[in-house]
């Protein structure tokens, strides 16, 4: 598996930190302006009611993943697709190379053209360049690479929270039918209010969240005004199972009053069609899963002097599964049947529920167990220790399988977090 190379060297000018105060202000979305070309109108992309498409990838998108790249190109017009590539989240020394990398992949997957839009932390004025905005207005798709979502927010949003000229053009094209795809930070920046800026699960459960961006990568930070507000059905988080981000996602949602979280796994996408139409449809594409946390009935409280949360419902969706953001319902992919648990007891995978793929593995193991109705796993750290309990409730829980043995779709599993 490969993805665009990223430098590990720190940026010597941490200028992207200076806009924090302005970015936490509330944002009013601008009115889309009609920029559709005649060709776009002929293929139906110039109608706001139709809405565009988001393809939100959880990071580590393999350059061989034709399932996702092919869908991105198809949504933008296939052989007539014209892409703009943004790598604003990258270190500026890597931005051009990363842009060329993604542009080449898009063309190899069938796009007519793809070019890097040279906007990064060392060239913020380019986001207000009228010629660049006009070029974007003629494109049918945009791809946002990874890095740091806070760089995207700092460069492409003004200090007062409004769109720059380039972001306004991209937003307009999205509402007219274009596709906006992004991986890792490029997906995260498309979130609405409360966009996460960093943090680790254990520290998040222990210490809570704070508005802003922080040098301490373990500290749970967020922007109250959000990112670009393209996706508004709940919080987004990326690299979800690989980096054990379930704890930080739950804490941030509870702290900010958000009732739903979508956790995107690596090399996996959440596709959203009909953006802005009021009839959006969500579908999972790719290798692993999208996790959905439902906090509508959840209650935060204190357990043994520490933060706790109960009555969360958890769903795990894989390739082809659909999710209705209006009814909160799940439609399994075609061909899947009800999972019949086996005569076995559930066993937790490790002694660290937030290590790579442990949480999702525990959920799958519990689903296949005919003897167990619950499973409890724990944080590796013990000062304090946190427990994560999964349960199969008598009502509201379902599981499906594609192969007759392995769970492929879970919906409505119960979840509690507490200090034992």
UniProtKB/TrEMBL annotation:
| GO molecular function terms attached to this record | serine-type peptidase activity
Question: Matching CDD domains, A to Z?
Answer: GAT1_cyanophycinase (cd03145)
The protein's matches in Pfam families, at most eight in alphabetical order, are given as: Peptidase_S51
Q: Does the keyword Heme apply?
A: no
The record's Gene Ontology biological-process terms are: proteolysis
Which key words tag this protein in UniProt? Hydrolase, Protease, Serine protease, Signal
| Matching InterPro entries | Class_I_gatase-like, Peptidase_S51, TAT_signal
Signal peptide residue numbers: 1-36
UniProt lists the family membership as follows:
Belongs to the peptidase S51 family.
| Protein name in UniProt | Cyanophycinase
Q: Which organism is it from?
A: Streptomyces indicus
Its lineage reads: Bacteria, Bacillati, Actinomycetota, Actinomycetes, Kitasatosporales
């Amino acid at each position: 598996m490969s993805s665009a190379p990223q430098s590990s060297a720190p940026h010597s000018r941490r200028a992207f930190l200076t806009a924090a105060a302005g970015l936490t202000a509330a944002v009013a979305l601008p009115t889309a302006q009609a920029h559709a070309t005649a060709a776009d109108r002929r293929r139906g992309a110039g109608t706001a009611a139709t809405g565009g498409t988001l393809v939100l990838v959880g990071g580590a998108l393999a350059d061989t993943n034709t399932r996702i790249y092919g869908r991105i190109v198809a949504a933008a017009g296939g052989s007539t697709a014209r892409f703009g590539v943004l790598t604003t989240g990258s270190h500026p020394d890597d931005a051009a190379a990363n842009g060329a990398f993604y542009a080449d992949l898009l063309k190899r997957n069938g796009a007519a053209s793809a070019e890097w839009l040279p906007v990064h932390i060392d060239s913020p004025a380019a986001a207000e360049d009228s010629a660049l905005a006009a070029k974007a207005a003629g494109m049918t798709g945009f791809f946002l690479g990874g890095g740091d979502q806070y760089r995207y927010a700092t460069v492409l949003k003004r200090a007062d929270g409004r769109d720059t000229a380039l972001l306004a053009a991209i937003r307009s094209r999205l509402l007219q039918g274009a596709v906006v795809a992004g991986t890792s930070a490029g997906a995260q920046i498309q979130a609405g209010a409360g966009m996460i800026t960093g943090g680790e699960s254990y520290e998040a459960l222990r210490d809570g969240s704070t508005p802003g961006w922080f040098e301490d990568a373990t500290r749970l930070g967020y922007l109250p005004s959000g990112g670009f507000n393209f996706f508004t059905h709940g919080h987004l988080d990326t690299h979800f199972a690989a980096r054990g981000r379930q704890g930080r996602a739950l804490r941030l949602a509870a702290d900010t009053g958000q009732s739903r979280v979508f956790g995107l796994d690596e090399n996996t996408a959440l596709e959203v069609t009909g953006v802005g139409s009021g009839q959006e449809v969500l579908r999972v594409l790719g290798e692993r899963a999208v996790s959905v946390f439902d906090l509508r009935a959840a209650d935060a409280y204190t357990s043994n002097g520490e933060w706790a949360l109960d009555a969360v419902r958890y769903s795990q969706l894989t390739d082809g599964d659909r999710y209705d953001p209006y009814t909160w319902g799940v439609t399994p992919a075609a061909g899947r049947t009800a999972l019949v648990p086996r005569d076995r007891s559930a066993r937790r995978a490790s002694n660290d529920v937030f290590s790579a793929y442990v949480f999702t593995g525990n959920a799958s193991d519990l689903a296949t167990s005919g003897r167990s109705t619950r499973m409890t796993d724990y944080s590796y750290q013990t000062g304090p220790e946190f427990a994560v309990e999964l349960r199969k409730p008598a009502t509201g829980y379902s599981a499906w399988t594609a192969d007759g043995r392995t769970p492929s779709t879970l919906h409505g599993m119960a979840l509690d977090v507490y200090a034992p």
